[in-house]
Amino acid sequence: xxxxxxxxxxxxxxxxxxxxxxxxxxxxxxxxxxxxxxxxxxxxxxxxxxxxxxxxxxxxxxxxxxxxxxxxxxxxxxxxxxxxxxxxxxxxxxxxxxxxxxxxxxxxxxxxxxxxxxxxxxxxxxxxxxxxxxxxxxxxxxxxxxxxxxxxxxxxxxxxxxxxxxxxxxxxxxxxxxxxxxxxxxxxxxxxxxxxxxxxxxxxxxxxxxxxxxxxxxxxxxxxxxxxxxxxxxxxx
Length: 237
Hints:
Distance between the termini: 22 Å
CATH class of the largest domain: Alpha Beta
Shape: globular
InterPro entries: Iso_Racemase_Enz_sf
Largest sheet: 4 strands, parallel
Number of strands: 8
Strand order of the largest sheet: 2-1-3-4
Protein name: Aspartate/glutamate racemase family protein
Structural class: alpha/beta
Order of helices and strands: EEHHEHEHEHEHHEHEH
CATH architecture of the largest domain: 3-Layer(aba) Sandwich
Helix content: 25-40%
Number of domains: 2
C-alpha cells in the first residue's frame, strides 16, 4: 500500500521565480521563458516592478510587493525562490526572512564560489547590464568582493536599452554582439580574470557566445538556479 501526504497547492515545480513586470521579448535562454529550464518552475510577476525601476532606481518602494509575491509562491508549494534580476540582491535578507525558505535572489551570489575554483592569481569578473547603477551595496549584499572587475553592455547598440527601456522588440544579433564586445573589453582591461559571472538574467542566451569569444568559463543565472533547484528536488538513483 502506498500512502502519500498532501499540503501543497502545486506539486512538481519546486522552484519559484519572482519576475519583473516587463514586455520585452523573452527568447529561449531568458529566465522569463519557461522553456529555458530542464524542470518545471512557478512564476509570479511583481506589478510595477519595471526593469527601469529595479535596475536604475534600486527597486524603491517595491520591497513589500516582492515579499507578498514570494509569500504567494510559498503558499502555492515552492520549496525555494529566486528572481529574474541580479539587482534584487538588495532584497536578499528581507525575502529570506519573509518566507522561511531558501532564497537566491541574484546570479552575483556565485562570484565568491567561482573565485574559490580558480587558480592563484585569477578571479571572476562580472558582466552587468548597468555598471552605472550597480552599487557597492548590491555587491556587498551578494557577497561579491568589492574590488571585483565589472564590465557592462551599457555602451552597446541594443541590449541594455532594449531591456531597461522595456521595448517590444529585440534585435538578437545586436544584443549578442553587445554582450560579446563587453565581455572582451572586460577581459582586456583585467588580464587576471579567470571566469565571467553574468549579473543579468537576460544575458544567458549569449553565454555560449561569450565563452567562445573569451575562452573563459561563463556562469549565468541558469547555472545558479539549476544547482539551487537540484537541492530542492534531488535526483533519485
